[in-house]
From TrEMBL:
SUPFAM superfamilies: NTF2-like
Statement: the UniProt record of this protein carries the keyword Lyase: no
Key words of the record: Signal
Source taxon at top rank: Bacteria
Designated name of the protein: Ketosteroid isomerase-like protein
Amino acid sequence: MKTFAAFAVLATVLGLNSTIARAQAPAASSAEEAAVKNVLRQYQEAVEKLDTTGTSRLFLANSQVFESSGVEGNYNHYAAHHLAPELGEFSAFTFSDYKATVQVDSPYAFATETYTYTIKLKKDAKTPIVRRGVATSVLRKNAAGQWQILSTHTSARTPRPKK
Protein backbone atom coordinates (compact mmCIF):
# COMPACT_ATOMS: atom_id res chain seq x y z
CA MET A 1 0.00 0.00 0.00
CA LYS A 2 2.87 2.37 0.79
CA THR A 3 4.34 1.64 -2.66
CA PHE A 4 1.05 2.57 -4.35
CA ALA A 5 0.77 5.78 -2.30
CA ALA A 6 4.35 6.74 -3.12
CA PHE A 7 3.71 6.04 -6.80
CA ALA A 8 0.52 8.16 -6.74
CA VAL A 9 2.37 11.06 -5.09
CA LEU A 10 5.24 10.75 -7.59
CA ALA A 11 2.84 10.63 -10.56
CA THR A 12 1.00 13.67 -9.27
CA VAL A 13 4.21 15.62 -8.78
CA LEU A 14 5.53 14.61 -12.22
CA GLY A 15 2.21 15.44 -13.85
CA LEU A 16 2.11 18.77 -12.11
CA ASN A 17 5.71 19.49 -13.03
CA SER A 18 5.09 18.68 -16.69
CA THR A 19 2.03 20.97 -16.62
CA ILE A 20 4.15 23.74 -15.12
CA ALA A 21 6.89 23.12 -17.69
CA ARG A 22 4.35 23.37 -20.54
CA ALA A 23 2.95 26.58 -19.08
CA GLN A 24 6.45 28.05 -18.82
CA ALA A 25 7.58 26.89 -22.28
CA PRO A 26 7.92 29.88 -24.56
CA ALA A 27 5.24 30.21 -27.18
CA ALA A 28 6.37 30.29 -30.79
CA SER A 29 7.94 33.68 -31.25
CA SER A 30 6.14 36.30 -33.20
CA ALA A 31 9.33 36.50 -35.29
CA GLU A 32 8.84 32.87 -36.39
CA GLU A 33 5.19 33.52 -37.24
CA ALA A 34 6.22 36.63 -39.18
CA ALA A 35 8.87 34.63 -41.08
CA VAL A 36 6.24 32.05 -42.07
CA LYS A 37 3.81 34.78 -43.14
CA ASN A 38 6.61 36.34 -45.17
CA VAL A 39 7.01 33.13 -47.20
CA LEU A 40 3.26 33.09 -47.85
CA ARG A 41 3.34 36.78 -48.80
CA GLN A 42 6.21 36.27 -51.25
CA TYR A 43 4.25 33.53 -53.00
CA GLN A 44 1.12 35.68 -53.06
CA GLU A 45 3.07 38.62 -54.54
CA ALA A 46 4.52 36.41 -57.29
CA VAL A 47 1.03 35.26 -58.28
CA GLU A 48 -0.16 38.87 -58.35
CA LYS A 49 2.80 39.74 -60.61
CA LEU A 50 1.77 36.79 -62.83
CA ASP A 51 5.36 35.50 -62.59
CA THR A 52 6.57 32.30 -60.92
CA THR A 53 10.26 33.13 -61.43
CA GLY A 54 12.20 32.27 -58.28
CA THR A 55 9.20 30.90 -56.39
CA SER A 56 10.61 27.36 -56.23
CA ARG A 57 12.90 28.55 -53.41
CA LEU A 58 9.76 28.98 -51.28
CA PHE A 59 9.00 25.25 -51.54
CA LEU A 60 10.82 22.11 -50.45
CA ALA A 61 11.91 19.85 -53.32
CA ASN A 62 9.53 17.11 -52.11
CA SER A 63 6.60 19.51 -51.70
CA GLN A 64 3.07 18.53 -52.59
CA VAL A 65 0.49 20.84 -54.11
CA PHE A 66 -3.24 20.14 -53.98
CA GLU A 67 -5.70 22.39 -55.75
CA SER A 68 -9.40 21.86 -55.12
CA SER A 69 -9.76 18.13 -55.75
CA GLY A 70 -6.57 17.73 -57.77
CA VAL A 71 -3.19 16.32 -56.82
CA GLU A 72 -0.79 18.56 -58.72
CA GLY A 73 2.53 16.93 -57.72
CA ASN A 74 5.49 18.84 -56.37
CA TYR A 75 5.71 22.60 -56.74
CA ASN A 76 8.12 22.56 -59.67
CA HIS A 77 5.75 20.34 -61.65
CA TYR A 78 2.74 22.42 -60.62
CA ALA A 79 4.45 25.69 -61.55
CA ALA A 80 5.64 24.44 -64.95
CA HIS A 81 2.52 22.54 -66.02
CA HIS A 82 -0.32 24.38 -64.32
CA LEU A 83 0.38 27.67 -62.59
CA ALA A 84 2.69 29.44 -65.06
CA PRO A 85 0.61 28.57 -68.16
CA GLU A 86 -2.54 29.66 -66.32
CA LEU A 87 -0.99 32.96 -65.23
CA GLY A 88 -0.02 33.53 -68.86
CA GLU A 89 -3.73 33.73 -69.73
CA PHE A 90 -4.40 36.46 -67.14
CA SER A 91 -4.03 40.22 -67.45
CA ALA A 92 -4.45 40.65 -63.66
CA PHE A 93 -4.70 38.59 -60.48
CA THR A 94 -5.37 40.38 -57.20
CA PHE A 95 -6.01 39.25 -53.64
CA SER A 96 -8.26 41.08 -51.18
CA ASP A 97 -9.84 40.38 -47.76
CA TYR A 98 -6.66 38.44 -46.93
CA LYS A 99 -6.24 36.88 -43.48
CA ALA A 100 -3.60 34.41 -42.33
CA THR A 101 -3.25 32.46 -39.12
CA VAL A 102 -0.06 30.61 -38.31
CA GLN A 103 0.80 28.08 -35.64
CA VAL A 104 4.50 27.30 -35.25
CA ASP A 105 5.55 23.96 -33.77
CA SER A 106 9.15 23.88 -34.94
CA PRO A 107 10.43 22.56 -37.21
CA TYR A 108 6.90 22.75 -38.69
CA ALA A 109 4.41 25.57 -39.08
CA PHE A 110 0.74 25.30 -40.01
CA ALA A 111 -0.96 28.12 -41.89
CA THR A 112 -4.51 28.88 -42.93
CA GLU A 113 -5.19 31.71 -45.35
CA THR A 114 -8.56 33.07 -46.41
CA TYR A 115 -8.99 35.58 -49.19
CA THR A 116 -10.95 36.78 -52.17
CA TYR A 117 -9.21 36.81 -55.49
CA THR A 118 -10.10 38.53 -58.72
CA ILE A 119 -8.79 37.38 -62.09
CA LYS A 120 -8.98 39.32 -65.33
CA LEU A 121 -8.43 37.27 -68.47
CA LYS A 122 -6.46 38.69 -71.39
CA LYS A 123 -9.20 37.63 -73.78
CA ASP A 124 -12.00 39.21 -71.70
CA ALA A 125 -10.65 41.73 -69.18
CA LYS A 126 -14.10 43.31 -68.81
CA THR A 127 -15.58 40.26 -67.08
CA PRO A 128 -13.59 39.56 -63.91
CA ILE A 129 -13.66 36.16 -62.22
CA VAL A 130 -14.14 36.57 -58.47
CA ARG A 131 -13.67 33.69 -56.05
CA ARG A 132 -13.52 33.22 -52.30
CA GLY A 133 -10.53 31.04 -51.47
CA VAL A 134 -8.86 29.20 -48.65
CA ALA A 135 -5.41 27.67 -48.41
CA THR A 136 -3.93 25.41 -45.78
CA SER A 137 -0.19 24.90 -45.80
CA VAL A 138 2.44 23.04 -43.83
CA LEU A 139 5.87 24.63 -43.79
CA ARG A 140 9.11 23.13 -42.55
CA LYS A 141 12.24 24.91 -41.45
CA ASN A 142 15.16 23.73 -43.60
CA ALA A 143 18.76 23.08 -42.50
CA ALA A 144 19.63 26.72 -43.20
CA GLY A 145 16.87 27.88 -40.84
CA GLN A 146 14.55 29.12 -43.60
CA TRP A 147 10.86 28.28 -43.78
CA GLN A 148 9.70 26.48 -46.92
CA ILE A 149 6.32 25.11 -47.95
CA LEU A 150 6.07 21.33 -47.66
CA SER A 151 2.44 21.01 -48.70
CA THR A 152 -0.33 23.35 -49.67
CA HIS A 153 -3.99 22.82 -50.49
CA THR A 154 -6.12 25.53 -52.04
CA SER A 155 -9.77 25.62 -52.91
CA ALA A 156 -12.15 28.31 -54.06
CA ARG A 157 -15.79 28.95 -54.89
CA THR A 158 -17.97 31.72 -56.20
CA PRO A 159 -18.74 34.09 -53.32
CA ARG A 160 -22.20 33.80 -51.83
CA PRO A 161 -24.40 36.84 -52.37
CA LYS A 162 -24.36 39.27 -49.46
CA LYS A 163 -27.65 39.51 -47.60
